[in-house]
Specification:
By secondary structure, this protein is α/β, with parallel strands linked by helices. It has 15 helices and 9 strands.
Length: 535
């Protein structure tokens, strides 16, 4: 597949112009400002991490805080405790002990997640994990004996399941939950529902119906930001809709954070307001990491552009399928489109349970088969990837430098401030298995879309075709691949960010294999870390 002809004679010297220096300085400044703001969100908060068996647990509380209630904060499916830090920081700043943790199979919890989606064994395993963390939280120094639960998505359902079987929960905040319990079996506890305005109406409808039941109303009559039932006897329910956010953005919304804080204050009698109207509490602060994250990532993009000029030139000429004199849309189209259609159709009847990771086995097969079909098209067109006149030493050096920058500038900060992104040792075999699939697709795709005569919009088109191919796979097997819907927006973001990197890297190195290998590694790692390991 990869052919080599002659060595590169000498690397080209890089030249920074004024625009490169401005981008580098601005990028560093934005990154430093973003990091300062992100670490500033933790100022005045004591953070302690430990383990309960295999479960990683982190406790947030204000330094020298008086005794107060404890809130166990749980992440959703394919999430991690880092994803819930905005709520943990907000609650800690307002006098609570906030406890976040990784469910089995998630984040850095080495215990696999038992059962299948919808099975009683799955729910029992999750409730059992939550129960262990609740027992730990009740014994925390500084807790005053009162307890609340806050759960996102899957964990909203698990929180209500736990409270229905274990008395002693004083309040629940369910963020974008999908409830499996019938409405008449929901626990008698003050219950707040928070949804993003951009989430599907069918998800929001469930919370609306639960609130309507407390007020004896028709669901259509339920108003947002109005409490139905009684806080005093534990029957209060409330619906809050956070504007302009979806299933993940709701975790960073100021409306969500204020509503959760105010609801718990009202449930515990810690404020004079009515328990949820965003903005009606003058004191206390909320987490504001979203703008700092935006500044930081913008800085990374600005800095990456001039830094690519420091990479070694791998090839004396621009390589890729577009190097052929007669290359163009006529030859490009079938190689780009046919694999997008054939891959989901060919994989539809095949078993996809060879990896102990939810959805990951299918994604590995999709990338791998898509890549093989694209390579077959390139072979038929006489345009297989090759080393050409590339310097092997320069190629390996460029790959190492790009990988180092991406780990230090993107993976590590994301793992610290957003969600689990760096693979723990027990996930490395899964990363390797996924890499075997992603590297085939990225090598084929980068080669197909690069070269002096490559179609101008070809790179963007093949990414859209890949996403469309995944959506076709979901449509063909909705019951099994439904959770691919969760990762498709994330893949789009990765395509945008690492696609920019790819273009800059190619213009400097002139060899598509540099970005192909580094991007394949990033995607394999991100997928392996995001989805839960199964037992």
């Amino acid at each position: 597949m990869l052919q080599r002809t002659r060595h590169l004679t000498a690397p080209q010297a890089s030249r920074w112009h004024l625009a490169h220096w401005v981008a580098a300085v601005a990028g560093l400044a934005l990154m430093l400002a973003g990091l300062a703001g992100l670490f500033g969100t933790r100022a005045g908060i004591a953070i302690h991490s430990t383990r309960i068996g295999t479960t990683p647990v982190t406790v947030f509380q204000a330094k020298d805080a008086p005794p107060g209630p404890v809130v166990v904060v749980a992440h959703g499916y394919a999430g991690s405790r880092q994803l819930m830090h905005p709520f943990a920081v907000t609650l800690a700043r307002n006098g609570y002990r906030a406890v976040v943790f990784d469910f089995p199979g998630h984040g850095r919890n080495t215990k696999p997640l038992a059962g299948q989606i919808g099975d009683p064994a799955r729910a029992a395993a999750l409730v059992g994990a939550l129960s262990e963390v609740v027992d730990f939280a009740r014994d925390l120094p500084g807790g005053d004996g009162r307890l609340a639960l806050l759960g996102h998505s899957m964990a909203g359902d698990i929180a209500t399941r736990y409270a229905s079987a274990h008395p002693g929960v004083d309040a629940i905040v369910a963020v974008s939950p999908y409830l499996s319990l019938p409405l008449d079996r929901l626990p008698t506890v003050n219950l707040l529902f928070i949804y993003g305005a951009l989430e599907p109406a069918v998800i929001q409808a469930q919370g609306r119906e639960a609130v309507a039941a407390a007020g004896g109303l028709d669901p259509a009559a339920v108003e947002t930001n109005v409490t139905y039932g009684s806080l005093e006897d534990g029957t209060a329910r409330r619906l809050v809709i956070a504007n302009r956010v979806e299933h993940i953005g709701v975790l960073y919304s100021a409306t969500s954070l204020r509503a959760a804080r105010d609801w718990l204050d009202a449930a515990f009698g810690r404020g004079t307001h009515d328990g949820g109207q965003a903005g009606n509490k003058p004191n206390g602060t909320i987490d504001h990491r979203a703008p700092w994250l935006g500044l930081y990532y913008l800085g990374v993009l600005l800095l990456a552009w001039p830094l690519t000029l420091l990479l070694p030139t791998v090839s004396a000429e621009r390589l890729g399928a577009g190097s052929d004199a007669d290359w163009g849309w006529r030859r490009f189209w079938p190689i780009a489109v046919v694999p997008a259609v054939l891959t989901p159709l060919l994989l539809w009847p095949m078993p996809t349970d060879f990896l102990a990771i939810a959805i990951g086995d299918y994604i590995a097969l999709h990338f791998g088969l898509y890549g093989l079909l694209t390579l077959a098209g390139l072979w038929r067109a006489g345009a297989l990837p090759q080393l050409g006149n590339s310097s092997i030493k320069a190629l390996l050096a460029a790959i190492a430098l790009v990988a180092l920058f991406e780990i230090l500038a993107l993976s590590l900060p994301t793992d610290l401030f957003v969600t689990s992104f760096l693979p723990a040792p027990h996930r490395l075999p899964t990363v390797a298995a996924l890499f075997a699939g992603t590297v085939l697709w990225f090598i084929a795709d980068e080669w197909l879309t690069r070269g002096p005569r490559a179609p101008r919009l070809g790179y963007a088109l093949t990414k859209l075709l890949f996403l469309a191919s995944l959506m076709l796979a979901v449509a063909l097997n909705l019951s099994k691949l439904f959770f691919l819907v969760i990762i498709i927006p994330a893949i789009l973001v990765l395509f945008l960010v690492y696609g920019l990197f790819s273009g800059w890297i190619y213009r400097r190195t002139r060899q598509p294999l540099v970005a192909a290998i580094t991007n394949a590694l990033v995607f394999a790692s991100a997928i392996a870390v995001s989805f839960p390991l199964l037992g």
